[in-house]
Amino acid sequence: MKVLLIDTNHPLLKTGLEKLGCICDEDYTSTKQQIEEKISNYDGIVIRSRFKIDQHFLEKASNLKFIARVGAGLESIDIDFATKKGIQLISAPEGNRNAVGEHVLGMILSLFNNLKKADLEIRKGKWLREANRGIELEGKTVGIIGYGNMGKAFAKKLKGFDVEVICYDIKEDVGDENCKQVSLKKLQEKTDVLSLHTPFNELSHKMVNMDFINKFKKSFYLINTARGSAVVTNHLVEGLISRKVLGACLDVLEYEKLSFENLFENDDLPEAFDYLIHAENVLLSPHVAGWTVESKIKLAQTIVDKVEVIFYSEDKNIEEKDIKRVTGIGGLFFKTGNPGKLKKWYKTHLGFNIDDWGCTFWWKNNDGKPASTQWSPFKSDTTYFSPSTKDYMFNYRVDNLVALFKKLKEEKVVIVGEIEEFDYGKFGWIIDPDGNKIELWEPIDSAFL
C-alpha cells in the first residue's frame, strides 16, 4: 500500500509501516488543496490534527483504504462519510492513556498543594507557609465521566490513594475493580473531584454548563483533559466565583483551534479566559496531557500494530488450522465480601505473594519463557463479571486474540464489548452456553517482571 504522512510523528511510525511493506511519502508543508490534488494516489493517510478530513477531501481520495490518526480522537474526520466509503478509521488511545492518567493526577495534586502558587511566591522572596497549607486527596470521592481508555488509566493511578472512585458512562457495564459505575445523578451526589474523559461528540459538547454544575450536591474540583468544547468557560467562571467549583485543572480550553497548536492566534481572547489565567485556584497546561516522550513512541507503534492487524494479518498465513485457541489458564477471579481480609488470610496461612491485584503465579510456557496466572478476589458488588450473574470468572491465555475473535464471530459465539489493549496484553470477553463470562487474554508477561 502507498501511504501519505502529512504530520510529523516519531520515526518508528514510518519505519514500521515500511517494514510491513508500505511505501511511505512525507508531505508536511503542502496546503490542504495541494494534498487533495494527489490524495487519489494513496491507499492510506496518517494524520494528527493539521487540517480537517472533510467530505470534499474524501471525495478526492478515491483509493483511500484507511485514515490513521496518531491520537485518541477522530473529530477532525468526517466519520459518517468515511464510513460510507468503506474507509477504515484508526486511532491510538492506547498510546497516550498512561500519559493522560499521570498528567491528571499530577495536576490535581499540584492544585491541592498550591505548588504553582508557592513556587512563584518563593521566587519573589515570599515564604508563606500557612497561606499554602494544602488539602489531601485521601477520603474524597473522585468522579469520572467517560470510562474508556483515559478514564480507566486515571482510575488505575488512583489505587493506593484511599479514595472512592466512581464513573458515569453512556455504555453499560464498563466499571471494573478500580472504579464503580453509577448513574449521573449518583455521581453528582457524591463527587468531590470530577475528571472529564469524554470523546468529542454531540453529547459532550458544552456538557459542563451552569445547569450541570448546579446539580452537584457538593462543591467540587473540575479536571478537563478531554476536549475544551465539553466545558462552557463562562459558566465555569461563574461556578468558580460562586465557589460551587472550588478549583479547576484545565489541559484543554474551548477557545482552541482544531489543530490544538496555538491558542493565542486570536488577540481578542474572552473575558472568562482572562479570569482563568489570573485565578490562583486554576491550573492550566497547553493540551499536553497525552504529550510525553514515551507516548510519542507508543502512539506511533499503536498505529503500526493496528495497520498490521487490519491489512497484513492475511499475509502471515493465519488460517484456521494455525490458530491456537486457549493455551493456559490466565486467571481465577471470584467475588468476596472483603477482598483485603481474604488476601491477608491467604498470605498468612498459604504463603501467597499478595499485591494490589491478588497473587501472580509464575511458570514457564512450552518455549521456556516466563508465563503467569493471576489469582484475584473482587468485591461482591463488582460489575466486571457482568453480564454474567456468577460469582466467578475465568481468564484463559491465548496466542492471537484478534485472529481468534474473528473465528469466534464466525462461529456465532456471544462476544461482550470490543478487544481492549493494555501494557500487559490484549483482552476480550465472551459468554459460554451456561452464561459464564470468559476473559480471553493475549498476554505480555514481561510487563509484570
Automatic annotation (TrEMBL):
Any coiled-coil regions, as ranges: none
Domain VOC per the UniProt entry, residue ranges: 328-443
Keywords associated with the record: NAD, Oxidoreductase
Keyword NAD among record annotations: yes
GO molecular function, a single term: oxidoreductase activity, acting on the CH-OH group of donors, NAD or NADP as acceptor
Gene3D superfamilies according to UniProt: 2,3-Dihydroxybiphenyl 1,2-Dioxygenase, domain 1, NAD(P)-binding Rossmann-like Domain
This protein's record includes keyword Oxidoreductase: yes
Position of the signal peptide: none
UniProt-listed PANTHER family: D-ISOMER SPECIFIC 2-HYDROXYACID DEHYDROGENASE FAMILY PROTEIN (AFU_ORTHOLOGUE AFUA_6G10090) (PTHR42789:SF1)
Family: Belongs to the D-isomer specific 2-hydroxyacid dehydrogenase family.
Protein name: Phosphoglycerate dehydrogenase
